[in-house]
Write a structure and sequence with these properties.
By secondary structure, the protein is an alpha+beta fold. About 30% of the residues lie in helices and about 30% in strands. Strands 2-9-4-7-10-11 form a six-stranded antiparallel sheet, covered by helices on one side.
Length: about 190
């Protein structure tokens, strides 16, 4: 397993990108990037690494990650061909934009701040968010931004939220310790 600091490209004149990804064919790699990420598992199962936490995941898994947190979704061998997720990446500075700096979005900013250690959303509201994500991947312009705000509103309504990582390691320190973590990971899971 390798550790990489990624550059996620959000096209010019866009504040976020939403896409459906077949992630079973990609090699397993722990990575981080400067973007926020909302990740929904449509199909497939395996092990999820977020910061210093390792756990299983399955279809319906919904996680919000803050910038620079190391993460990986390792797909089990039996699910490699069908593993699919919907991912939204948006810039770290979105919460500093004039648009987000209004009282009505204060709770969204708080949610994004809490996501710096990874948040796992559970319960009935996740299925509604899945439907909105399916809609979002096919939209552009203002309509896509409106649906993104609806998704934030739905996330805020979910009561079952679990913080995933006990700490928020920065990529530089995580990379330095990654060899040690990788040895433990390989021993425990292989």
């Amino acid at each position: 397993m390798e550790f990489v600091v990624d550059q996620i490209h959000v096209p010019n004149k866009r504040s976020f990108i939403a896409r459906r990804i077949q992630h079973g064919s990609q090699g397993t790699r722990v990575h981080s990037h400067k973007n926020f990420e909302l990740n929904y598992i449509v199909s497939g199962a395996g092990r999820r690494i977020v910061g210093n936490q390792i756990s299983g995941y399955e279809p319906g898994d919904l996680v919000l990650l803050g910038p620079n947190i190391a993460h990986c979704w390792e797909v089990s061998e039996t699910d490699r061909e069908m593993a699919t997720c919907i991912v939204i990446h948006f810039y770290e500075n979105i919460i500093n934009s004039d648009f987000f700096n209004i009282p009505e979005l204060e709770r969204v900013i708080d949610l994004l701040d809490r996501s710096r250690s990874g948040l796992w959303f559970k319960g009935d509201g996740v299925a509604i968010i899945h439907n909105k994500l399916e809609e979002l991947v096919n939209l552009n312009g203002l309509q896509s931004y409106i649906v993104l705000l609806e998704i934030f509103n739905l996330l805020l309504a979910i009561d079952e939220v679990e913080e995933l990582s006990c700490s928020t390691p920065q990529p530089a320190s995580f990379k330095k310790d990654f060899e040690k973590i990788n040895l433990v990971y390989e021993y425990v899971f292989n």
